[in-house]
Amino acid sequence: MNHYPSPSYVGSPCNMRHLNILLASLALAANINSAAGAAKSLAVKATNPLPEARSSQTIELSANDLAPLGQKDLAKIHVRDDAGKEVLCQAVDTDFDAYHRPDVVIFQADFAPGQTRAFTVSSGARQVYTKAQFKAHGRFVRERFDDFAWENDRVAHRMYGKAVETWAGESLTSSTVDIWSKRVPGMVIDEWYMVDNYHVDAGEGADFYTAGTTRGCGGNGLWAADKLWVSKNFVNSRVLANGPIRILFELVYEAFDVNGSPVAETKRIALDAGQNLSHFLSTYQPQGAAGPLTCAIGLKKVVGEHKQFDAGLGWMAIWENMEKKQGMQGLALIVNPKDLLKETGDATNNLLLVKASPANTVSYWAGFAWDKAGLCADEEAWKAYVAQFARGLQSPIAVTVSGE
Questions:
Q1: Cβ(180)–Cβ(156) below 8 Å
Q2: pLDDT value for 403
Q3: What is the arithmetic mean of pLDDT over 248-268?
Q4: Potential cystine with 214: which of 100, 198, 300, 341 (Cβ 3.0-4.6 Å)?
Q5: Distance, CA of 158 to CA of 148 (rounded, Å)
Q6: Does 161 lie in the same domain as 192?
Q7: Looking at the 3D structure of the chain, how many domains does it have?
Q8: Domain check: are 236 and 266 in the same one?
Q9: Is the pLDDT score of 37 beyond 80?
Q10: Which domain holds residue 86?
Q11: Domain for residue 325, yes or no?
Q12: For residue 300, what are the β-bridge partners?
């Protein structure tokens, strides 16, 4: 039997209604068949391979991991722990495709030493978050001469855009990473910019740090002819993900001189909830005949600082007095020890030199802690935090996904 309508059948208004009903029925049947082949849920097991407790560990599930659920909209993915409690999760677009479709889902968990935890992943209603759930946030701040500021429930930073280079009030040409010292878990950068008095502590913290033209807290450059070469301010930015768990964004830098060769750069920066260190991924675009690139990543030098360096784990940590007698703070860098060339410095920066990959990329972590925030009270606590973070990078949480 021919189930397809003839042209005369299609032309009748009455029969058009029957055709629409038929098409809707066929679509429903297709959806039912598709759903019948999809898994109702997936089982996720996550194991901490280290003999030490680890908090706020981010677990990442790819679109391929989640494919058995048959749900293409990853914003409709839900996660529950082994007690059946809903776990906050976030769909993230890591490749910024034309449709801006998320391609991973992330959530966080705490782990005891060597612990394995179980989670159930399923499809449901589209995720809608409340303001209170946000533990990571960032934005381009045009009204403050092109700052880009970002934060989580522990720390806050900013970097400088093109407009501030020519601002008559306080011009600055620098690709440094600035520090905003906060001591509350809530998001503060929007309110601090709104009040425009963020150099004064009103109970939440303030901008006490002067990064200037130094590398600040994790700014980078290229090393050539025994010299640090740095870019000017970023000229473009885009946000790829904006909480509630991860802020992920990119900054674009015009080509800058590196010992006679122009090199452009794109920085991708991510910060997850519950962490003191951001992840930086720099991609360089040499525009001349450049050989292998060496990246220099820095922490601003401060009089009286205490510096420690562990080549085996690839970290440098500093404990120092804050400006304006606001307490103590720790700063840190972590690089892949396989890429580490040496520790060095110049007049204003402590530096780690690392070799770029064959694709001219460099990956590293940088961040800080303020003793008044109540998370790292002293130098030993900061050193322990940085060392554990570095060990965690070498022994990530092991994740397996299976159908239920």
A1: yes
A2: 85
A3: 96
A4: 300
A5: 5
A6: yes
A7: 2
A8: yes
A9: no
A10: 41-123
A11: yes
A12: 349
